[in-house]
């Protein structure tokens, strides 16, 4: 045997074994699969004319919860022990959820009590300045009785000292005495704010309904026992709340001591002033009585300006009755924090911060980004697409010349045989390799090489070698079933497109679901705020009713029980809303893919924006309602000047609130021209109001002083001092109006006004002191001082008001008419803007339906599946035919040789040509399959029609619901405005015992107002959610890399333009793979 023979014999086995060792590289095969899939993704997008967005791979982001840090090709099993709090929120491209709250959100100005800005339905206080609401004054806070910054709710600009134009001077706090005539609308002195009595005192308040038969009630006091599950080293907000309560009680004890010392010092000073001025020895001044009032007495008839009423704090025990998880959620809102500061005034900013939830605060973009990282369903959908691409890569590999999966290798077999004292050793080295390919016409090509080497070392003939090699070429072609051969490739190609569309639609559906959950959570947060205010409001109503019943019996017990029942219902609603919030947050975590135990909160900036929008809409509704009321009153009572001015004042105040909210929404920091005009008109109306009041008081005073029987000194002083007060108010308001108009004003007049104001308060204190000490001989002298003061104030008023308001009655009437007309004109001009409210639904229904039918991915898939069903008819029909196959085989063989292993010649070749026919004598199963294929096609056709109808219905329903929600929103806004006025009206009538108004009427009004506020928020958020559904149903949502659609927070209802059908659907029935020869019937249906 030649040397070359041995070389080839031993080289070929080694070559055959080489792929075995190279195949052990796992990373090589994994990266190859990833490269093939990436190429298929890119090709698929190109074939679909880029109607598909970029397709994501299956690599898990390192920030994801299910990221596996172990080696990809040799992953390690996770720890079997379950863990809590094992995942922390990662850094997000859409923002930092761990940023602390803005300091301005939790601290009040100058560290003191600060009234929060109006919320969505925190409306301006209705004009009822002449009524003392007692404890019900707290209801004003819940109903939105917030003064616009720098101005009182009456429309009167506040002075730099912080008091209104008609407020008291800086040296006195008591209210001003009212005239006995109720028509004057003046306000009596000595406000007596209500507060619960001390434990053991009569009238003390305990739990709702815990009164004994004697009527004595004790205030339950105790520490807060609120515990919230948190980490072991963390201080819970509830524990912090209990600490703050104890600190507040200690601080109040110290403050009470300081206040008593200050009161004693002030009493001595006032007594000294009175002796110096009047030469009288008074044991106590009226100022002491005014500044150190007992708790509010519901039996008293005293009245004072509602702006100066002390809003009753919520008693400590009612805070303690709330569940441990509810208080931190309530304190998310400034209106509730303000109530808490009122109950615990010593709470610092740091203390309030410690009580708030420190959980990460997520926005909707953060939520969608976290879901794109952690949502398991989306990851599974990505893997389904990847698997479909892997199947396609395998099917495509069938159409390239490739080694066969098995039978490519070599081996060595050694034999040792001993028989009849004869020993024979042999060595067998078989080697085989083959390649194959499916051709474009469904043919199967196979080429194989087989080499066999047999060595016999010590046989009968000594060393012997038997070497044989075969080279085989085989080609097989089916004649009638070509499309059947192509079906695997066809199905794999189309499945990739189907799964790609399913993935994209699943990502968009996930955004829709997350957005729906997010806005539902915002609605729940809003319900907590509204329920909190409703609870506080009903609780104050109960406290007042209880006090009135116990101290004076002014109302029957049944009405007290009604108040109590309503307070309990409000608390139940509040607790239920808090519980609903916790459950909804846990469900959101599951949707995102986060562990339920992870602390989580929402960033409420978008809720504040929605609330501001609702606030603007409701205040605009109030403006328009007030405008209509003013115009109706002007037509019915043409000569009622007071009604016209009062109505215009209410209108301008509400317009001012509307402009403030509008500027807040637009983000404008500078005061607009409309606001300047509004302020000027407010000042003009305030001056007119003071003038009308002065005229009325002067008429009453003149009538009584000129009567046949001179009035007693008490009446003379009351009428005169009221007129002095009203005249001073005219002067103060005139100063402000002159400054606003840029008119010249003498500085000395302002100084004189301040001095006269001080004299007025001093005279009032002297009068009150004389009455209290029964120094009746001093009364005539005080009446003379009041007359002298009136002359001085009249002179000042003539100088300041003379060129602003005419004295002539006709001219004055014309000024009133013109001012009211200017107010209405300003409202008509400003309220033409479209800011606020919801966009009108102007989407064309037919265009929207066509847009959905053109763009819906699920409908594209259904069309493709119908084409698949049609193709199955062709394949089933092919199976009914005869099976005719042609096969050609060429074999080249080489046996023992000396020159070379691969010396193949024609002498050792074999050629075969075969034809195989299988006649259709038995096609019963194939017949049934064919008939089923026909049925499946018709069923698929009906399914396509059904899906088209469902899509059209969904779009029509979306538009129908959008129009309904917009209409319901307008109704809810009108209901909120009406209910707000109804609440105030019934509250005041109940307080004054006017008509037949009873507690049930007020409770029904309060319930209607709360229901309307909830409806406004619910309808607004429902409109937003339905709008997102419309864009999803028309396949108009386009997500960014973080799974977020920026158009979700846009209020526009404008859909994308309708594209050409074939631009949106380049392959309506799906495409066929390139490079293969389908039958004409198949090509015609794709």
Automatic annotation (TrEMBL):
Stated name of the protein: Outer membrane efflux protein
Domain of life per record: Bacteria
Comp. bias (Basic and acidic residues): 257-272
Source species: Stieleria maiorica
Residue ranges, compositional bias (Low complexity): 120-132
Molecular function in Gene Ontology: efflux transmembrane transporter activity
Region (Disordered): 109-132, 151-215, 247-301
């Amino acid at each position: 045997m030649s040397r070359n023979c041995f070389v080839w014999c031993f080289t070929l086995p080694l070559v055959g074994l080489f792929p075995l060792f190279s195949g052990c590289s796992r990373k090589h095969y994994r990266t190859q699969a990833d490269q093939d899939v990436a190429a298929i993704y890119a090709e698929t997008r190109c074939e679909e004319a880029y109607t598909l967005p970029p397709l994501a791979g299956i690599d898990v982001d390192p920030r994801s919860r299910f990221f596996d840090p172990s080696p990809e090709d040799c992953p390690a099993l996770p720890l079997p022990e379950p863990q809590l709090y094992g995942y922390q929120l990662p850094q997000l491209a859409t923002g930092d959820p761990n940023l602390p709250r803005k300091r301005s959100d939790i601290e009040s100005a100058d560290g003191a009590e600060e009234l929060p800005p109006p919320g969505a339905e925190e409306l301006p206080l209705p004009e009822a300045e002449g009524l003392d609401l007692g404890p019900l004054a707290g209801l004003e806070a819940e109903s939105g009785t917030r003064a616009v910054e720098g101005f009182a709710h009456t429309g009167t600009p506040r002075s730099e000292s912080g008091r209104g134009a008609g407020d008291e001077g800086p040296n006195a706090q008591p209210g001003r005495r009212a005239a006995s005539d109720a028509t004057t609308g003046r306000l009596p002195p000595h406000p007596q704010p209500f507060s619960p009595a001390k434990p053991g005192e009569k009238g003390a308040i305990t739990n709702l309904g815990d009164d004994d038969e004697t009527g004595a009630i004790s205030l339950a006091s105790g520490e807060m026992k609120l515990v919230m599950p948190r980490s072991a080293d963390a201080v819970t907000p509830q524990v912090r709340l209990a600490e703050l309560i104890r600190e507040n009680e200690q601080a109040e004890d110290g403050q009470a001591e300081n206040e008593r010392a200050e009161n004693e010092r002030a009493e001595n000073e006032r007594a000294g002033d009175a002796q110096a001025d009047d030469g009288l020895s008074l044991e106590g001044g009226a100022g002491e009585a005014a500044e150190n009032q007992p708790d509010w007495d519901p039996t008293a008839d005293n009245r004072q300006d509602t702006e100066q009423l002390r809003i009753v704090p919520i008693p400590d025990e009612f805070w303690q009755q709330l569940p441990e998880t509810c208080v931190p959620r309530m304190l998310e809102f400034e209106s509730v924090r303000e109530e808490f500061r009122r109950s615990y005034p010593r709470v610092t900013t740091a203390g309030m911060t410690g009580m708030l939830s420190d959980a990460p605060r997520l926005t909707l973009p953060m939520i969608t980004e976290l879901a794109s990282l952690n949502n398991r369903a989306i990851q599974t959908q990505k893997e389904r697409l990847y698997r479909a691409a892997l199947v396609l890569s395998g099917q495509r590999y069938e159409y390239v010349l490739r080694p066969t999966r098995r039978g490519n290798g070599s081996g060595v077999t050694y034999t040792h045989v001993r028989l009849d004292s004869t020993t024979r050793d042999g060595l067998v080295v078989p080697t085989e390799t083959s390649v194959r390919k499916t051709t474009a016409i469904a043919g199967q090509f196979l080429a194989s090489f087989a080499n066999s080497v047999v060595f016999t070392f010590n046989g009968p003939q000594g060393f012997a070698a038997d070497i044989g090699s075969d080279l085989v070429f085989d080609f097989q072609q089916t004649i009638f079933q070509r499309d059947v051969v192509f079906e695997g490739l066809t199905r794999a190609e189309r499945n990739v497109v189907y799964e790609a569309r399913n993935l994209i639609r699943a990502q968009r559906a996930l955004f829709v679901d997350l957005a729906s959950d997010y806005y539902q959570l915002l609605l729940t947060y809003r319900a907590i705020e509204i329920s909190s205010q409703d609870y506080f409001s009903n609780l104050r109503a109960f406290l007042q009713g209880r006090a009135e019943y116990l101290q004076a019996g002014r109302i029957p017990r049944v009405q007290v029980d009604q108040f109590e029942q309503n307070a309990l219902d409000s608390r139940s609603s509040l607790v239920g809303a808090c519980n609903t919030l916790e459950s909804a947050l846990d469900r959101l975590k599951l949707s995102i893919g986060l562990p339920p135990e992870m602390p989580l909160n929402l960033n409420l900036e978008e809720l504040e924006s929605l609330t501001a929008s609702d606030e603007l809409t409701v205040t605009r509704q109030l403006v328009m309602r007030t405008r209509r009321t003013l115009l109706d009153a002007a037509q019915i009572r043409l000569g009622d000047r007071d009604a016209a001015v009062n109505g215009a004042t209410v209108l301008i105040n509400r317009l001012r609130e509307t402009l403030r909210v509008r500027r807040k929404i637009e983000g404008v920091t500078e005061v607009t021209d409309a606001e300047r005009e509004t302020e000027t008109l407010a000042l003009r109306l305030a001056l007119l109001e003071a003038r009308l009041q002065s005229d009325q008081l002067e008429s009453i005073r003149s009538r009584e002083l000129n009567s046949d029987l001179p009035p007693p000194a008490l009446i003379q002083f009351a009428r005169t001092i009221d007129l002095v007060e009203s005249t001073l108010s005219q002067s103060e308001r005139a100063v402000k109006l002159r400054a606003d108009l840029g008119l010249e004003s003498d500085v000395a007049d302002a100084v004189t006004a301040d001095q006269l104001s001080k004299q007025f308060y001093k005279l009032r204190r002297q009068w009150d002191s004389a009455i209290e000490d029964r120094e009746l001989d001093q009364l005539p002298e005080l009446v003379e001082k009041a007359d002298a003061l009136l002359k001085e104030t009249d002179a000042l008023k003539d100088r300041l008001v003379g060129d602003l308001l005419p004295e002539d009655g006709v001219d004055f009437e014309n000024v009133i008419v013109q001012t009211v007309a200017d107010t209405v004109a300003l409202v008509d001009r400003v309220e033409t803007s479209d800011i606020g409210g919801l966009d009108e639904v102007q989407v064309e229904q037919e265009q929207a339906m066509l847009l959905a039918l053109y763009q819906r991915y699920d409908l594209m898939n259904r069309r493709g599946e119908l084409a698949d069903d049609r193709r199955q008819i062709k394949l089933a029909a092919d199976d009914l035919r005869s099976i005719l196959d042609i096969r050609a085989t060429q074999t080249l063989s080489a046996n023992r040789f000396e020159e070379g292993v691969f010396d193949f010649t024609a002498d050792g070749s074999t050629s075969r040509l075969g034809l195989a026919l299988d006649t259709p004598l038995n096609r019963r199963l194939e017949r049934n399959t064919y008939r089923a294929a026909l049925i499946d096609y018709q069923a698929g056709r009906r399914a396509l029609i059904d899906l088209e109808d469902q899509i059209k219905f969904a779009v029509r329903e979306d538009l129908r619901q959008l129009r309904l929600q917009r209409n319901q929103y307008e109704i809810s806004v009108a209901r909120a405005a009406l209910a707000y006025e109804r609440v105030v009206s019934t509250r005041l009538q109940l307080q004054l015992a006017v008509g037949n108004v009873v507690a049930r009427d007020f409770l029904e009004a309060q319930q209607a107002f709360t229901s309307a506020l909830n409806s406004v928020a619910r309808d607004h958020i429902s409109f937003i959610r339905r709008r997102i559904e419309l864009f999803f149903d028309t396949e108009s949502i386009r997500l960014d890399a973080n799974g977020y659609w920026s158009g979700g927070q846009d209020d526009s209802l404008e859909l994308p333009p309708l594209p050409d059908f074939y631009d949106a659907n380049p392959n309506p029935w799906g495409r066929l793979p390139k490079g293969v020869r389908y039958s004409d019937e198949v090509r015609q249906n794709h």
